[in-house]
Amino acid sequence: MLLQTRPLDLMFQALGDPARRAMVERLSRSPASVSELARPLPMSLSAVVQHLRVLEDSGLVRSEKIGRVRTCHIRPIALSQAEQWINDRRISWERRLDRLGEYLANNPEDPEPGEKP
Amino acid sequence: MLLQTRPLDLMFQALGDPARRAMVERLSRSPASVSELARPLPMSLSAVVQHLRVLEDSGLVRSEKIGRVRTCHIRPIALSQAEQWINDRRISWERRLDRLGEYLANNPEDPEPGEKP
Fold it and tell me: What are phi and psi of A18, to 5 degrees?
């Protein structure tokens, strides 16, 4: 059961860092060069390149080099896999609430004698 | 900008492990004791307790001890924060696609001479 989960591992691990989330946030607005990605971040360019590698390994971002400029793009399909996993948990949890609601509706407690109905 | 993101860091880091996701998956169906959580997992009880601590620190799970049994519960509000972050990125990306569509609609390329319209 735990074997086929590597892509989700890498995606959630990649999102567990504020600099990498800032990069994903930037790229969800438009593609960007590595130096554009680095500009607002309080770290060296080589640190940004390291973070970029983690994002690319996770599948959340892809980049292509044309001439001397590497341009980075978001991969929304990967992001939606992470979203889907969380979404499935929420659905499962809401179903449980529905079942609990049904149970309570079908098993109303009889009011105690003397208690207002 | 990167300072106020600690809760999301911890949540995504917590979800970046298949055993912890299996535990969240289990708890999204119903609350469970630590030994119920551990049963399907191929690891020691003490490893499960370690994972549980990471999940509690991230806010995704809470537990309470009554007598000798510790019962674990999902915290759906925390899970929905992680979902919201991803969702916001998707909305941002979809808006970009909309703008691109509008641009293309307002700037149709004139067909080349001799090309079929």
Answer: -65, -35
For A53, the token pair is 């590698």
ipTM of the complex: 0.82
**Residue A33 to residue A79: CA distance in whole angstroms:** 20
Contact (CB, 8 A) for B100 and B93: no
Instruction: Look up the pTM and report it.
Output: 0.83
Q: What is the 3-state secondary structure (H, E, C) of A25-88?
A: HHHHHCCEEHHHHHCCCCCCHHHHHHHHHHHHHHCCEEEEEECCEEEEEECHHHHHHHHHHHHH
**Closest Cα in chain B to A84:** B83
φ, ψ dihedrals at B73, nearest 5°: -130, 150
| Residue A22 distance to chain B (closest CA, Å) | 8
Q: Which of B11, B79, B96 sits opposite A89 (nearest CB)?
A: B79
**What does the alpha-carbon distance between residue B41 and residue B33 come to, in Å, rounded to a whole number?**
14
pLDDT digit string, tens, across residues A62-91: 999 999 999 999 999 999 999 999 999 989
Q: Is the dihedral of CA A38, A41, A46, A48 positive or negative?
A: negative
Residue of A nearest to B24 (CA): A89
**Dihedral sign computed on CA atoms, order B83, B89, B92, B94:** negative
User: Using CA atoms, how far apart are residues B52 and B47, in angstroms rounded to an integer?
Assistant: 9
